[in-house]
Every structure is written in structure tokens, then in C-alpha cells.
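Sequence dictates fold. Below is an illustrative record:

_____
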Amino acid sequence: MFNHRFTKVLTLLVLFSMMSVFVVGCGGNQASKEGTANTIDSWVLGTDHEFSVRPDGYLELQQVYDFKFDNVQVMDLGVTYGALQNGKVPVAMGFATDGRIAALGLVSLEDDKGFFPVYNPAPVVRQEVLKAYPELEEILAPISEKLDTESMIDLNKQVDVDNKTPEEAAKDWLLKENLIDEKSPKVKKGKITVGSKEFTEQLILGQITIQLLENKGFEVEDQTGLNGSAVVRAALEGKEVDLYWEYTGTAWLTYMENEEPITDSEECYEKVKEADAANGLVWLDYAPFDNTYTLMMRKADADAYGIKTISDLAEVVKSNQKL
């Protein structure tokens, strides 16, 4: 239910024919300057569709932290960062390894109740493909070994902030880590189809995999950029894709439909690996970085309201709703 202040804002919105997402976001502020705090009259969450409906997303978050935002604005995944930076929403969901967080003057709020599960990525390969090409495990292992949190944040930043393409960022990283040569050999091995989801990190992981396999003599079909977790998982199970990088937490909660999240990386990996073996899918070694969900604010706003944790945010939102 809309509170009294929100009704006032909505009335002004109609009278002046302004865009709702702009006014609702930060109580009608006309601009947000970096380093300048907004006055937030209505606490709105900017989120993509998937987070708004996932079992480890917004709905359960409300229950664990015992609060509700005044409104939720569902938008395309990449738009949440810009909407937050520009003051169109005061809070947005994001990913912990996204390079835009620091670059855009944003901060991640501490998940002080340990709500978000671990999300370590690993290549998931169809068993029959790995049986045909057992060397895939050895070829892909160095990616998992070398992709730490700092490296992944930097790769994401190169694409989202510095305007490199995922292909360029992937090639530069592979060359820096001495995982490929400048020239790929002629195709000598079979065909591998590599998939990915549609967001930046997944596109980068897909391109790293594609270029490494090509450098090892495979013919690779690029099926990266598939729309969302369910789509790429279905493509893998339907044999349209041979391998892609999946997150342990996504598999545990979404595909395997478990209700209790796991916060230990090794435990989650072993459980999804064991469960998917029955589906003819093999989880190779996981990377050490954890791309869990996060709630973000503009640093200036978080500092002004004394918000460092999600619990802090919940208290501020509830206090505002009592006015």
C-alpha cells in the first residue's frame, strides 16, 4: 500500500506529466551529483526481473530483514547501476564483483544476516562431451585457478566502464596470464558449443572459454548471451550447448529447488556437483570469486543516512514509513 508521502509524489507526477521512475526514486530530486546526498522521501528498489522472483531474491529478503520497500521498479539488468547513480532509485540490486560499483561512486551494503548464498562459478559440461574430450578439464582448470575476485572486478570494469568488448577483455586477460598465444592454431579437434547468460560477467567468462578452446585447436560455436539462467540451463540439458559457467548458488536454489541457502563455497560446490551427476552434467573446478547478489546505494546517500548494512537500511526504511 502506498504511504501518504508516496501518494503526494504520485499526484505531482500526474499533474506535471513527469516520468514515474525519476520522481519515485528519490523523492523528486531533479539531479544527483556525485558526492552530494539526496533527500529520500520514498524508498524504492531498482531490480531486474529475475531477482524480483528468485527464492534467494527480493521476496525472501523482505522476510529475513523484516521490512518492505515503498515500491519496486523492475528494469533491465544493466540499467540498475545507472538508475542508482543518477538518483532515480535510492537502492538497487547488483552483483558483488561488478566493476561499476566503485567506478560510479556506489557502495555495497553488508549482508549482516548472511542472507545471500555463495555464488562461485564453475564450468558445467555435458558428461558425453567430457567423455569425448577429457582434456577439457585440464584446459579449463587454469581459468578457475587464476580468476580471483580482484581479477573479475577488473574485467567487469573494463567492459562496463572502460568500454572494451567482452572479447577484448577476455583476450587481454588470457594473454596476460600466458594462457593463449597471439595466433590460434589450425582447427584439429572437434566442435564445442559454449553458452552463457546475457550479463557482462557471463559474456566475459564465455569469451575467455571460447578463446582458450580455440587456441587449443577446437572449433567453437559461440552461443553466449542467452537470456537468463533458465534459458541457458535448458540449452545445456537440451544439448544445444555443451558447456557454460554456472554459479553454485543458482544451481542449488533454482534448478535443484532447495529452500535453505548454503554459505560455504566448498559445501555448495560438492552438493551441486553430486546432484547434477545424475543429470549427466559435470561440474569442473570452481573459481574462488563469489559473485553473490548485493544491495547498493550511492555512497553519499549511504553516508548521509548512516547505512552500512542491510539491517541499517531496513531500520531507516521502517522509520520513514512511520512518518
